[in-house]
Amino acid sequence: MRFYDDIPIGDESRSEPYRISQSEIIEFGEKYDPQPFHTDPEAAEDSVFGGLVASGWQTAALCMRLHVQSSEETAIQAGVGIDDLRWHRPLRPGDSLRLRSEIIEKRPSESRGDRGFVTTRHEGVNQDDDLVISYEATAMVRRRSDE
Q1: CA 114 – CA 11 distance, rounded (Å)
Q2: Are 87 and 134 in contact, with CB atoms under 8 Å apart?
Q3: What is the pTM of this model?
Q4: Is 142 helix (H, G, I), strand (E, B) or coil?
Q5: What SS3 state is found at 2?
C-alpha cells in the first residue's frame, strides 16, 4: 500500500491499452449521452466527426479504469477534483486508449495531519500516440503516520 509519504513528485505510470468497440460506444451513448454521433453510425457520418465516436464522458471513465488498473494500490480516501479537462480528438470504434500519468504536485492537509493531497496529470493517447484527452486529478491520500 502506498501512502501520501511514499509518492514522489515526478512519479510516472503507463497503462496497458484498452480497445473500444462500436457496441460499447453505442451502449454507453444510449444510456448516458444519447447524441446521434454516439448512438447511430449512419447519422454520425453526417456529423462534424464524420463517423461514430465515443462520448467524452466515456473516454474519461475509461481513463479512470486504466488508472486504477495500472496503479499500485494507494491509500486514496477520496477524489477531490478534476482541473483542465480537455478532449483533443475523438475516440473511435477500434481505437486503443492508453493512459500516461505523472504526479505533478503534493501538499499536506492544513487542517488534518493524517492526509495530504496529490495531483496527477493524466493523458489518454490512442494507438498512434495522438492525444485524446488530458486532465489533472487531485486525490486525498492517507499519510503513513495514520497507519
Answers
A1: 22
A2: no
A3: 0.93
A4: strand
A5: strand
Q: Is the pLDDT of residue 145 over 80?
A: no
Burial class (CB in 10 A: 0-12, 13-18, 19+), 139: buried
Instruction: Report the alpha-carbon distance of residue 31 to residue 76 in Å, rounded.
Output: 29
51-85, pLDDT tens digit by residue?
A: 999 999 999 999 999 999 988 888 999 999 999 99
Q: What does the block give as the cell for 82?
A: 478534476
- State the cell numbers at 90: 475523438
Q: How far is CA 75 from CA 43, 50, 108, in A?
A: 45, 43, 14
Number of separate helices (H) and strands (E) present in the chain: 4, 6
Short-list 99, 101, 98, CA closest to 139: 101
Cα gap 32→58, rounded to integer Å: 9
Q: How many CB atoms lie within 10 A of CB 42?
A: 9
Whether residue 80 contacts residue 52, with contact meaning beta carbons closer than 8 Å, is answered with no
Residue 69 has φ and ψ, to the nearest 5°, of: -70, -30
